Amino acid sequence: xxxxxxxxxxxxxxYSASIGMIAAYTLWLYALGSYRELLVPLFVTLMLLVCLLMxxxxxxxxxxxRLLLLASTYVVVLSAAYIAxxxxxxxxxxxxxxxxxxxxxxxxxxxxxxxxxxxxxxxxFAAHAPISVGYIAxxxxxxxxxxxxxxxxxxxxxxxxxxSDCDAYHIDTLKERLNNEFQRASMLNKRxxxxxxxxxxxxxxxxxxxxxxxxxxxxxxxxxxxxxxxxHDILGRAGNATFxxxxxxxxxxxxxxxxxxxxxxxxxxxxxxxxxxxxxITTCLPQRKESxxxxxxxxxxxxxxxxxx
Length: 309
Fold this sequence. Notes:
- The protein is an alpha+beta fold.
- It is built from 11 helices and 6 strands.
- The chain has a 4-stranded antiparallel sheet, with helices on both faces. Strands 4-5 form a two-stranded antiparallel ribbon.
- Strand 4 and strand 5 (275-276) form a beta hairpin.
- Helix 5 packs antiparallel against helix 6 (129-159) and helix 8 runs antiparallel to helix 9.
- It is elongated and about 70 Å long.
């Protein structure tokens, strides 16, 4: 699974780390005796504390604290460029990293492009060719992972339009990936587990509440799976309301822990149209010396069984 998202824990760490870095920078200026330059980092520290509280609070759109964090980053960099005649080039990396963390890909590229033009026009040190080339190289290097993710999502949508609302593999691709993991586990004596997930509300969500309700259900499932599973775990859509979550290098006890964690997380999801999200999850592990065809039969039977409970 390679889904670009910003889980709440990741953003909490980003806000906390930002506060720590700005506070350390403020103390460093204080130790140097640069009292006149303390105003901006002190103000930014307070602003980041407000962002963290907004992020942790309820009823606040996540976009607002993210934009405030991004603006605070640019304020600090502009302050450093104004104070020092030749500040370190590392200051350029902070806004670049912040934009890729807080903005969508195209918004990130647009902001970084505008920032490069602004630095070139206003800041004397940015006119040096090596720094400008490094800025561009770093921006495009950080753009590669989200660009690849966007390409894969476009490929999945072209393969099956029904998968466009959930970043999950199409059934043919899913079986191919599962076969590869099965053969790898057999040859290397590795462990493999698969969770079968069924969303009974998904069958009637679009008919009763419209496409938006179905999208919300799929998004809730994918968000919870993305935030609680590893990057190399594989989520695929095996049917209209049935999904397989392939867990490489996972024992039965590990699969049960993942099932319990997902079951608990999904049960806490409450949607406007359908209410509390209902999810049925079971495990299916390959047996010793079992063929892939036989395992697929058991897996499909398990999926059919939980779909008709």
